[in-house]
Design a protein that fits this description.
DNA-binding, alpha+beta, four-stranded antiparallel sheet, 43% helix, transcription (chains A, B), TF_AMS/ICE1/BHLH6-like (chains A, B), homodimer, 5 helices
DNA sequence: ATTGACACGTGAAGC
DNA sequence: TGCTTCACGTGTCAA
C-alpha cells in the first residue's frame, strides 16, 4: 500500500501547505529500488549524538536530578544554576560586610537601643552548639546578637553553605536571637560536628 | 484537530513544518474510516515545545552564549555551572580563612547569675505537660531550670528514648527554659500521655 | 490498550 | 553552491 504523498518532488514552497492537518492520508514512497536517501543523514546523526552527549554531561554536573528526562535535566540544571547564583551573591555579601567590619571596628550605630548592650546586660552571650542526633542529622543551636535581617541572612548563609534545613525555630529575647534548627549534614566527614560548629561561628561572625 | 501554530520559538528562527514521514512497514489496524495517524502526534509536539522552552530558559540564565545552537547552549551552561561552582568554593575558602585570621579570642565567659536562684525569685516552677493532639501526635511543654547544655541533653535524651520530633521551639527567660514540642508517640500504648510525662520528668531530672 | 519519552530519517531554511 | 541546524511525523520501547 503506497500512495504518493502530496507534493513531494516539486519545489513547492509550502506556505501553509504543510500537511499537518487532519486527514493527511499521505503514505508514499516505498522503498523499492533505491530512492536515494538524504545526504545529511549522517550529519544529522552526529548532531543528535552531540546534543545527547552535552545533555549527559550537564546531567553529570547537576547534583540533584529528579528525573532522567531531557526536559527535566535542563529544568534541574536551571534551578541549580539559580541556586548557585544565589549562593555566590550571599557569600559575596557576607565577605564584603566582613571586610568592612574588619576595617572599621565600629560602624556608626544609630539604633535606638543597641542589642549588643542589652544582651551584655542580660548576661546572654552568643554561642553556637552542634550535636549529632541521628545518622546524618544535626541539631544546632545558635544564639547571637539580634540584628535587623539577621535571621534571614543566617538562613541564606546556611543555605549557601549547603545545609539542608529540616526544622527550624527562632525566638528573640533581651536583644538576643536564638535559632534552633535540625539540619541534614553537608559532608560525610568524620568530625562533622566540629566542622559545622566552626562554619556556623564563621557565619554569625559575618552577620 | 487543531494544530498549534509552529509558534516561533523566539530564539530559533521559525521554520515551517514539513510533514514528510515515511510510513514504515506494517501499519494500520483499521481502514474503515479515518483513523490512523499516530495518536502521540500532539504529545510529541508538546514534548518538543517543552524541551525548547527549557532550553530557552537555560539560555536566558547563562550570561555568555557563544552560539545559538542547542548543543552550544548546553555547552555554555556547563561551563557556566563549573565557573559558579568554583566561585562558591573560592568564596567559602576565603571566608573561612578570614575567620581564622581574625580570631579575636574575645568571647567573654561570664556566667554571673545562678539560674536556679533567678528562677526561684521569679516564681517559675519546673513542670511537664503532655497532651494528645491527634492520633499518635503529642504536644509537650517542658519548663525546667536553665543549664548549660540542658536543651541539648534534653534533645539527646528524647531522641534516645525514641521520640520523633516533628516541631520544636525553645525559649529561655528568667533562668528558666521552656521547650514546647510536637512529637510522634513512641508506643501505641493506651495511656501514652501519662507514660510520656513520666519519661520526660525522669529525663529532666537527670539533666 | 494507553501513555510518555526517544531516536530516527527527512525537507526546509539560513549562512 | 554545500553544509549546518532545525522541526516535524512516526515507529518503537517501556511502564
Amino acid at each position: 500500500m503506497e500512495y504518493v504523498g502530496s507534493a513531494l518532488d516539486g519545489l513547492f514552497i509550502t506556505k501553509e501547505g504543510n500537511s499537518r492537518g487532519r486527514v493527511g492520508r499521505r503514505r508514499y514512497s516505498n522503498d523499492d529500488g533505491t530512492e536515494y536517501k538524504s545526504k545529511n543523514l549522517h550529519a544529522e546523526r552526529r548532531r543528535r549524538q552531540k546534543l545527547s552527549d552535552r545533555l549527559l554531561a550537564l546531567r553529570a554536573l547537576v547534583p540533584i536530578i529528579t528525573n532522567m528526562n531531557k526536559a527535566t535535566i535542563i529544568e534541574d540544571a536551571i534551578s541549580y544554576i539559580e541556586e548557585l547564583q544565589n549562593n555566590v551573591e550571599v557569600l559575596q555579601g557576607l565577605l564584603y560586610e566582613m571586610e568592612a567590619s574588619s576595617e572599621e571596628g565600629a560602624l556608626p550605630r544609630s539604633e535606638e537601643i543597641d542589642p549588643a548592650e542589652e544582651m551584655r546586660k542580660s548576661g546572654i552571650q552568643a554561642e553556637v552548639e552542634v550535636t549529632q542526633i541521628d545518622g546524618n542529622k544535626l541539631w544546632i543551636k545558635i544564639i547571637f546578637e539580634k540584628k535587623r535581617g539577621g535571621f534571614t541572612r543566617l538562613m541564606e548563609a546556611m543555605t549557601a553553605f549547603g545545609f539542608e534545613l529540616i526544622d527550624t525555630s527562632v525566638t528573640t529575647s533581651k536583644g538576643a536571637m536564638l535559632v534552633s534548627s535540625c539540619v541534614k549534614g553537608i559532608h560525610g566527614e568524620i568530625n562533622e560536628v566540629q566542622r559545622t560548629k566552626e562554619l556556623l561561628l564563621q557565619i554569625i561572625n559575618g552577620i
